[in-house]
Design brief:
There is one protein chain. The chain is α/β, with parallel strands linked by helices and 511 residues long. Helix content is 32%, strand content 18%. It has 18 helices and 25 strands. Strands 1, 2, 3, 4, 5, 6, 7 and 8 form an eight-stranded mixed sheet that branches. A five-stranded mixed sheet has the order 9-15-20-24-25, sandwiched between helices. The model has no long low-confidence stretch (mean pLDDT 95).
């Protein structure tokens, strides 16, 4: 929970902004019913701590008096229960984009109570700027300080903050003293993107390049409130790596060794790596360290615990991202050695960290999780049983479609073995077979490049869980045996029968 009565103004070195200091309740009172609000925050890092709490209290009081109050919420990616969750519980969100992990909000999205648009993370800033969405009434942005010139020192995420500050009519700033002052200097904010037809090439050639400035800019006249806070980020603690995750990590390393031997990846150095979030992603990073790699570059969205470990060991020389999303132990490690880590980390706006042109040009190797994939390589990243939104596509589409190699990772089963991650036909498709190059489970990797649909199916069946391989083989053989089976054989009445069986019986397994 944020502390709203911090009196120390050392972080606010501009007299203009000191004169705008108010309480969170006063700031929340400025935000009207129906407002479109751009919040900072990316994967639980750098989200505002005080204003959302005050908005939730305000919504509760208004609703108790039978008055309407809800807002449209724009962020960088997921935030925390202290933003998404408490507002959802007070029925104070009418619209949300682009990505959320909160359970309370997820229920409202799936019930239709909250309108939700699942947007590629690289697209949202430009689409807001070009007017594809509602005009922003407010931007509520966490920062770690304000310098003497009135420029803003960012905190642990940049996300879409630059665009929300530029596009919003009014700006509310939360200066969070919990955020380390030494973050100053780790950011690279690029201000010269522009919009078509005036967009210029982005002058970034490697993950190491600095192309912007270390501050966010804001028109002081737009700033209507400054709040002093002292509250931590989400700091989710990761569970210890299990044998399944370790096996997936080892299989990714085996694939990399194959590519090095074939001359498709530089030996010992690979190419810039992107890694999604979660335990499987951390397991892949741990596998790289065990394999003895040194001096790697990462060009990704989020820096997690595993990335800090790799930087400390020298496995990774530099990591570029848009947010630091660390467990409590990793936060302490980062704070204790922040001067060291600042030499190896760059944080950029997500329209740069996830930029498709940059991803393709510098040759990023993309590694992302999935819910399921079908035998031909279509991937579902977002919808449970085809209809219920889990979290969102996030940045996986940015990296998968544009990466030098796109890899999808998953344990072969879920729900105690009752759901297979490899199915006859994906119940929802976020990444088509055209964007999926490699799929990895704990049973190996399926390299789908250069393979026909039938060859892809053979490779996918081989990495499925043994409990489901015979079922997949039976489906595929019977699909092939049909008259006029076609280029991509399916038995249409059975294509989604596995999902229906799970809904009916609690398991995809046949009797």
């Amino acid at each position: 929970m944020a502390t709203n009565d911090v009196k120390n103004t050392d972080r606010i070195r501009s007299e203009i902004f000191r004169s705008k200091i108010v309480t969170a309740d006063d700031a929340a009172a400025l935000i009207h019913d129906g407002a479109a609000v751009g919040f900072s925050g990316f994967v639980g890092a750098g989200y505002p701590k005080a204003v959302p709490e005050a908005l939730a209290k305000r919504a509760h009081a208004l609703h108790a008096n039978e008055q309407d109050f809800s807002i449209k919420v724009y962020t960088g990616a997921s935030t925390d229960h202290a933003l998404d969750g408490i507002l959802a519980e007070e029925e104070a969100i009418s619209f949300r984009t682009p990505f959320s992990t909160d359970g309370a909000l997820r229920k409202q999205i799936n019930s239709g109570e909250v309108g939700y648009i699942d947007t590629h993370l690289s697209h949202l800033a430009q689409q807001v700027e070009e007017g594809f969405f509602d005009h922003l009434d407010f931007a509520v942005i966490e920062i770690s300080g304000i310098d003497e010139n009135g420029d803003l020192i960012p905190s642990t995420s940049l996300g879409n903050n630059k665009t929300y500050i530029e596009q919003a009519d009014k700006v509310i700033l939360e200066v969070n003293e919990w955020q380390p002052e030494q973050l100053d200097g780790v950011h690279d904010v690029y201000y010269s993107i522009g919009t078509p037809p005036n967009r210029q090439p982005i002058p970034l050639n490697t993950a190491h390049d600095r192309i912007g400035i270390g501050r966010l800019r804001v028109d002081p006249d737009k700033v209507v409130a400054v709040i002093e806070t002292e509250g931590g980020d989400r700091n989710t603690k990761f569970t210890p790596l299990d044998e399944c995750s370790k096996a997936i990590g080892d299989n990714v390393v085996e694939f990399f060794k194959q590519e090095e031997a074939a001359g498709r990846l530089p030996e010992g150095r690979l190419l810039p790596l992107q890694s999604g979030i979660g335990n499987v992603a951390n397991a892949v990073l741990a596998g790289l360290e065990r394999a003895g790699y040194q001096g790697l570059e990462c060009y990704s969205e989020v820096i997690q615990d595993g990335m800090l470990d790799l930087i400390k060991s020298g496995t990774v020389e530099l990591a570029s991202a848009t947010a630091l999303s660390l467990s409590p132990d990793a936060v302490n490690e980062f704070r204790d050695n922040i001067d060291f880590y600042n030499k190896h980390i760059l944080l950029r706006p997500q329209e740069i960290s996830n930029n498709p042109e940059l991803i393709r040009r510098i040759g990023v190797v993309a590694m992302n999780g999935m819910l399921e994939a079908d035998i031909y390589g279509n991937v579902n990243s977002t919808h449970i049983m085809g209809t219920k939104m889990m979290n969102g596509i996030g940045g996986s589409g940015d990296f998968a479609r544009n990466g030098y190699i796109s890899i999808f990772l998953s344990p072969s089963t879920a729900k105690n073995g009752n759901i297979s991650a490899i199915v006859p036909f994906a119940s929802h498709i976020d990444h088509t077979e055209h964007d999926t190059m490699v799929v990895v489970t704990e049973f190996g990797f399926a390299d789908l490049r250069g393979k026909t649909p039938r060859q892809r199916a053979e490779a996918m069946i081989a990495i499925a869980h043994p409990d489901y391989r015979d079922q997949l083989r039976d489906y595929f053989d019977r699909a092939n045996a049909q008259p006029n089976a076609g280029q991509t054989p399916h038995i249409l009445p059975e294509a989604l029968s596995w999902h229906q069986r799970f809904l009916d019986t609690g398991s995809m397994k046949q009797d």
